[in-house]
Design goal:
Structural class: mainly beta
Oligomer: single chain
Number of strands: 15
Radius of gyration: 18 Å
Largest sheet: 7 strands, antiparallel
Protein backbone atom coordinates (compact mmCIF):
# COMPACT_ATOMS: atom_id res chain seq x y z
CA UNK A 1 0.00 0.00 0.00
CA UNK A 2 1.20 3.49 -0.81
CA UNK A 3 1.39 5.53 2.41
CA UNK A 4 0.65 8.77 0.52
CA UNK A 5 -2.85 7.47 -0.24
CA UNK A 6 -3.88 6.34 3.27
CA UNK A 7 -5.35 9.59 4.65
CA UNK A 8 -8.98 9.11 5.74
CA UNK A 9 -9.02 5.40 4.77
CA UNK A 10 -11.07 3.40 7.29
CA UNK A 11 -10.29 -0.16 8.39
CA UNK A 12 -11.52 -2.53 11.11
CA UNK A 13 -9.03 -4.16 13.47
CA UNK A 14 -10.22 -6.61 16.12
CA UNK A 15 -13.77 -5.27 15.85
CA UNK A 16 -12.75 -1.61 16.29
CA UNK A 17 -13.08 0.93 13.45
CA UNK A 18 -9.95 2.98 12.75
CA UNK A 19 -9.10 5.71 10.29
CA UNK A 20 -5.57 6.40 9.04
CA UNK A 21 -4.22 9.81 9.94
CA UNK A 22 -4.23 12.18 6.98
CA UNK A 23 -1.20 14.12 8.25
CA UNK A 24 1.61 13.54 5.76
CA UNK A 25 4.26 12.78 8.40
CA UNK A 26 2.06 10.33 10.36
CA UNK A 27 2.26 7.55 7.76
CA UNK A 28 5.58 6.51 6.29
CA UNK A 29 7.02 3.30 4.93
CA UNK A 30 7.99 2.34 8.51
CA UNK A 31 5.22 3.91 10.61
CA UNK A 32 1.40 4.00 10.50
CA UNK A 33 -0.84 6.15 12.69
CA UNK A 34 -4.53 5.32 13.03
CA UNK A 35 -7.34 6.74 15.16
CA UNK A 36 -10.36 5.09 16.75
CA UNK A 37 -13.29 7.30 17.67
CA UNK A 38 -16.37 6.81 19.75
CA UNK A 39 -18.09 9.93 18.37
CA UNK A 40 -17.65 12.21 15.34
CA UNK A 41 -18.83 15.83 15.49
CA UNK A 42 -18.78 18.58 12.86
CA UNK A 43 -18.94 22.01 14.50
CA UNK A 44 -19.38 25.33 12.68
CA UNK A 45 -17.33 28.39 13.53
CA UNK A 46 -18.94 30.26 16.41
CA UNK A 47 -20.84 27.20 17.62
CA UNK A 48 -20.39 25.05 20.70
CA UNK A 49 -21.19 21.50 21.70
CA UNK A 50 -21.09 19.79 25.08
CA UNK A 51 -19.73 16.26 25.39
CA UNK A 52 -19.56 14.13 28.52
CA UNK A 53 -16.44 12.07 29.08
CA UNK A 54 -15.92 10.11 32.27
CA UNK A 55 -18.74 11.97 34.01
CA UNK A 56 -17.31 15.41 33.18
CA UNK A 57 -18.92 17.84 30.73
CA UNK A 58 -16.62 19.54 28.22
CA UNK A 59 -17.82 22.54 26.22
CA UNK A 60 -16.04 22.66 22.85
CA UNK A 61 -16.33 25.91 20.89
CA UNK A 62 -14.93 26.66 17.44
CA UNK A 63 -13.75 30.24 17.99
CA UNK A 64 -12.47 30.78 14.46
CA UNK A 65 -10.88 29.32 11.35
CA UNK A 66 -8.15 30.94 9.28
CA UNK A 67 -8.94 31.86 5.65
CA UNK A 68 -6.87 28.98 4.25
CA UNK A 69 -8.77 26.42 6.34
CA UNK A 70 -5.54 25.07 7.77
CA UNK A 71 -5.86 26.23 11.38
CA UNK A 72 -8.72 26.54 13.86
CA UNK A 73 -8.91 28.17 17.26
CA UNK A 74 -10.74 25.75 19.52
CA UNK A 75 -11.86 26.52 23.06
CA UNK A 76 -12.33 23.67 25.55
CA UNK A 77 -13.90 24.74 28.86
CA UNK A 78 -12.49 28.26 28.58
CA UNK A 79 -9.00 27.34 27.34
CA UNK A 80 -8.38 28.42 23.72
CA UNK A 81 -5.62 27.03 21.53
CA UNK A 82 -4.84 26.90 17.80
CA UNK A 83 -4.90 23.48 16.14
CA UNK A 84 -4.04 22.16 12.68
CA UNK A 85 -5.62 19.16 10.97
CA UNK A 86 -4.26 15.96 12.44
CA UNK A 87 -3.47 17.38 15.86
CA UNK A 88 -4.86 16.00 19.10
CA UNK A 89 -6.79 17.84 21.80
CA UNK A 90 -6.20 16.59 25.34
CA UNK A 91 -8.00 18.27 28.22
CA UNK A 92 -8.65 16.29 31.40
CA UNK A 93 -10.23 12.99 30.30
CA UNK A 94 -11.20 14.44 26.90
CA UNK A 95 -9.23 13.11 23.96
CA UNK A 96 -10.16 14.38 20.50
CA UNK A 97 -8.51 14.37 17.09
CA UNK A 98 -8.88 17.28 14.63
CA UNK A 99 -9.81 15.33 11.51
CA UNK A 100 -10.67 18.15 9.13
CA UNK A 101 -10.81 21.95 9.01
CA UNK A 102 -12.83 23.63 6.25
CA UNK A 103 -13.05 27.34 5.45
CA UNK A 104 -16.04 28.56 3.46
CA UNK A 105 -16.08 31.86 1.57
CA UNK A 106 -19.51 31.79 -0.04
CA UNK A 107 -22.27 32.78 0.70
CA UNK A 108 -20.60 34.14 3.89
CA UNK A 109 -17.25 33.62 5.53
CA UNK A 110 -17.62 30.62 7.80
CA UNK A 111 -16.15 27.19 8.33
CA UNK A 112 -16.38 23.87 10.11
CA UNK A 113 -14.15 21.58 12.10
CA UNK A 114 -14.67 17.82 12.20
CA UNK A 115 -13.54 16.23 15.46
CA UNK A 116 -13.15 12.62 16.52
CA UNK A 117 -14.23 12.71 20.17
CA UNK A 118 -12.84 10.03 22.45
CA UNK A 119 -10.18 9.19 19.90
CA UNK A 120 -7.16 7.08 20.67
CA UNK A 121 -4.15 6.85 18.43
CA UNK A 122 -2.82 3.45 17.42
CA UNK A 123 0.79 3.73 16.23
CA UNK A 124 2.39 0.84 14.39
CA UNK A 125 6.10 1.48 13.89
CA UNK A 126 8.53 -1.05 12.49
CA UNK A 127 10.70 -2.77 15.09
CA UNK A 128 8.81 -1.45 18.12
CA UNK A 129 5.85 -2.37 20.27
CA UNK A 130 2.52 -0.97 19.10
CA UNK A 131 1.18 1.95 21.14
CA UNK A 132 -2.45 2.74 21.93
CA UNK A 133 -3.22 6.17 23.30
CA UNK A 134 0.49 6.74 23.87
CA UNK A 135 0.90 3.58 25.98
CA UNK A 136 2.91 0.60 24.76
CA UNK A 137 0.98 -2.62 24.24
CA UNK A 138 3.32 -5.05 25.98
CA UNK A 139 4.19 -7.94 23.69
CA UNK A 140 2.58 -6.45 20.53
CA UNK A 141 5.56 -6.32 18.18
CA UNK A 142 5.35 -4.61 14.78
CA UNK A 143 7.15 -5.71 11.63
CA UNK A 144 6.73 -3.71 8.41
CA UNK A 145 8.20 -4.95 5.13
CA UNK A 146 8.55 -2.00 2.79
CA UNK A 147 10.05 -0.19 -0.17
CA UNK A 148 10.80 3.54 0.01
CA UNK A 149 7.16 4.74 0.07
CA UNK A 150 5.13 1.53 0.00
CA UNK A 151 4.30 -0.99 2.67
CA UNK A 152 4.33 -4.51 1.28
CA UNK A 153 3.49 -6.35 4.49
CA UNK A 154 2.36 -5.41 7.99
CA UNK A 155 2.67 -7.96 10.77
CA UNK A 156 1.72 -7.47 14.41
CA UNK A 157 2.56 -10.40 16.67
CA UNK A 158 1.55 -10.70 20.28
CA UNK A 159 3.85 -12.48 22.70
CA UNK A 160 2.03 -13.51 25.88
CA UNK A 161 3.79 -13.86 29.20
CA UNK A 162 4.26 -17.46 30.31
CA UNK A 163 1.91 -16.96 33.26
CA UNK A 164 -0.76 -15.10 31.23
CA UNK A 165 -4.02 -16.96 30.65
CA UNK A 166 -6.67 -15.80 28.20
CA UNK A 167 -10.18 -17.15 28.52
Amino acid sequence: MDTDELGDVEITLLGENYIFSDVATANTATKLTLFASSQTETISAGESITVNVGGTDYVITIVGINEAGTEATIDVNGESKKYNEGEDIEEGDLEAHVKEISALKFPVEAGTVELFIGSQSLVLQNGTEATLGGDEIDGANVLITNTTTKIRELEVTYQMDDDEVLL
